[in-house]
From TrEMBL:
Major localization listed first in the record, in broad terms: membrane
Signal peptide range: 1-17
Protein name (Swiss-Prot/TrEMBL): OmpA family protein
Protein's organism: Mangrovicoccus algicola
Keyword vocabulary terms for this entry: Cell outer membrane, Membrane, Signal
Record domain OmpA-like: where: 192-309
Family matches, as Gene3D superfamilies: OmpA-like domain
Length: 309
């Protein structure tokens, strides 16, 4: 069965590597023709450089036991060597903090757990340019771990002409009763168009709580309006906590906060659930000092990261 899956992967996207021995395929996804981006460098202190390719995209993930015969670094080096030997042009390779840590992670789209996991404390990545001329494509390989397995994902974009589609007109999403007039969509739209991510300001969570504040701030409706205007886009809603208390509990709480926002977007504002993923990173990416009450308030936030359009 595994060989059949891998053979199909190779026919669909020649850049995909053969999985190491003992590997188990955990998931795949074929995306329709569109314009997709992948990192072509590491986080430079401001952003992760991206390159867009018009074509079709395929995500595939594997895992194998983490033991004396396999490590994160070992699997990574094997896949990288295979890519280089196959004629791919390596654009960059990096490990964890050298990649940019969470700032690099925000530029990635991953298959959802349990198909793929990323441990922010240990991961490696490399990107490869494939083909030439009008047939130039991209491939990104990310290798990380769980407590018992090495896990990795390959994202391949294969060029393919895409018929133009009508330009959607941004739709205003009404605010909830009592919330007042919705704020201009441009606030969130400018950040999403320019950076591919935005902080959902106004989501001031109480310490230890994942309950959405009432009224729900306009930034959430602005996000829904932007995604309505970009029907091919997917997004990851990322929850954050302050540094108070237990780290594991904070990570769980931050995911609950992200899930609260995701549920509101789907159940109350009508977005398709398949377009949204929830994730939590706890206190790993503060935007202010945790030494002050105001800093901790700012760190209890939710961001949205656009994965692809």
């Amino acid at each position: 069965m595994i060989r059949a899956i891998l053979a199909a992967a190779l026919m669909a996207a020649p850049a995909l590597a053969q999985a190491p021995a003992a590997a188990v395929a955990t998931g795949t996804r074929e995306d329709p023709p569109g314009r997709y981006s992948l990192p072509v460098g590491v986080f430079d202190g401001t952003a992760v450089p991206l390159r867009a390719v018009q074509g079709v995209r395929r995500l595939a993930a594997w895992r194998r036991p983490l033991d004396g015969q396999a490590s994160v670094a070992g699997v990574f080096e094997g896949l990288r060597a295979e890519a280089a030997a196959g004629g791919g042009r390596i654009l960059f390779d990096c490990a964890t903090e050298d990649c940019g840590g969470f700032d690099f992670r925000r530029a990635l789209e991953l298959l959802p757990p349990p198909e793929m996991y990323l441990d922010l404390a240990e991961f490696h990545a490399f990107a490869v340019e494939t083909g030439s001329g009008a047939e130039t494509g991209l491939r990104l390989v990310l290798v990380s771990r769980t407590g018992s397995d090495v896990v990795w994902q390959e994202s391949v974009i294969r060029p393919e002409p895409v018929a133009p589609r009508p330009v959607a007109v941004p739709a205003q999403v009404p605010a909830e009763p009592g919330a007042g007039a919705p704020a201009p969509v441009a606030d969130i739209a400018q950040a999403l168009d320019g950076k591919g991510m935005a902080v959902l300001d106004g989501l001031d969570f109480a310490t230890g709580s994942a309950d959405l504040p009432e009224p729900v701030p306009a930034s959430v409706s602005q996000l829904a309006a932007w995604m309505t205007a970009h029907p091919r886009a997917r997004a990851t809603v990322v929850g954050h906590s302050d540094a108070s208390g237990d780290a594991a509990a904070n990570q769980a709480l931050s995911r609950q906060r992200a899930e609260s926002v995701r549920r509101y977007l789907v159940e109350r504002l009508g977005l398709a659930g398949a377009r949204l993923e929830a994730a939590g990173v706890g206190a790993l990416a503060p935007r202010a000092s945790n030494a002050t009450p105001e800093g901790r308030r700012l760190n209890r936030r939710v961001e949205v990261v656009i994965a692809a359009e």
